Amino acid sequence: MGINIMFLTVCVIAYNEEKTLPLILADISGQDYEHSSIEVVLVDSASTDSTKKIMQEFAACNKDFAAVKVIDNPKRTLPCGWNEALRIYSGEAILKVDAHARIPKDFVTKNVNALERGEDIVGGERPNVIDDDTPWNRTLLMAESSMFGSSIAPYRRNPGPAYVKSMFHAAYRRRVFDKIGGFNEKLGRTEDNEIHYRMRKAGFRLCFDPDIISYQHIRSSLPKMLKQKYSNGYWIALTTGVCPECLSLYHYVPFAFVMAIIVLGIARTLTQCIEPLSAAAMGVTVITAIMWGAYWLLAVAMAVLAVVTAKPEQRSLPDILLPVLFFLLHVSYGLGTLAGFVQLPAFVRQYKKQ
């Protein structure tokens, strides 16, 4: 590695992650980067399980790191947790790693190599993985990993070397946060979108390095996945009222789909009740049929694409439900966005008061 080795902070924030936390901590312990040049900051967000105890045991058993700091995040949210870490970290750069993540042994090394090439912010691909290898979980993974089921974010697609708008696991030089400040604690779910927007606005570039890879565990059941999508959509709507510039058009596609269902459903009901054979009623019926036909055709096509491009061992019988899973994910996200827009005026008033 040479004589001059960058001193790096690796940060993990967790709330009730006693199942997945030992895995990511084991990965951190197994990094091939010089441990004496790594500071580990573990942030417990007022967990009610053994999360904090696991962190403390890791600190006690891993004395080869420069330091292992276990701190509290009493406000519990992710942006508040990151700000707690930013207040106390000592590294020349800080590397954010999610508690649901897995990282290969050269993860830190590759991030440092990219930073030492002159970049201020670096990150790479972040595919999804599952906890338990069952046919149903493999289908959930396929739905979450599909562009149709998730998003077109570059960290999901690996576009090759590029400068991008946002990242998931990323390393930031100290001067980045010194210049723009910390995370917006008034936001949830969208704090990364907002801070990456501020970074770009301040002149920093987010370098996507295809050699860097990490993995993210998907939610372990369909209800948990739908809850996550609903929350994501909800915060997209709220963030629209305070920082629309940090969002992209694709964030609103599920909302547009849900609104089309609602509007066409209402229009069809009214026209059928008033003049069932009128031109207006026939027009609404045709438009509705075209919308549903196009959606299900695309859902089936994307499901087939997901299955065909998957490895043979990843395919299973529940894959036939992929079009239905796509629909549920889209509706859940869209309904969350709708609920967020309903709540938006009150949120903006409260946001301005704080």
What is the terminal separation in angstroms?
Answer: 47 Å
- Tell me the strand percentage band: 5-15%
Kindly provide the radius of gyration, computed on alpha-carbon positions and rounded to a whole number of angstroms.
22 Å
| Rough outline | globular
Unreliable stretches? none
The count of strands amounts to: 11
The succession of helices and strands, N to C, reads EHEHEHEEHEEHHEEHHEEHHHH
Mean of all residue-level pLDDT scores:
92
CATH-assigned homologous superfamily of the largest domain: Spore Coat Polysaccharide Biosynthesis Protein SpsA, Chain A
Output the strand order for the largest sheet. Answer: 3-2-1-4-9-6-10-8
Summarize the helices and strands and which ones pair or pack.
Elements: E1 8-14, H1 21-29, E2 38-44, H2 51-61, E3 67-72, H3 78-88, E4 93-98, E5 101-102, H4 107-116, E6 121-125, E7 128-129, H5 135-145, H6 154-157, E8 162-164, E9 170-173, H7 174-180, H8 191-201, E10 206-213, E11 215-217, H9 222-240, H10 253-274, H11 279-309, H12 322-353
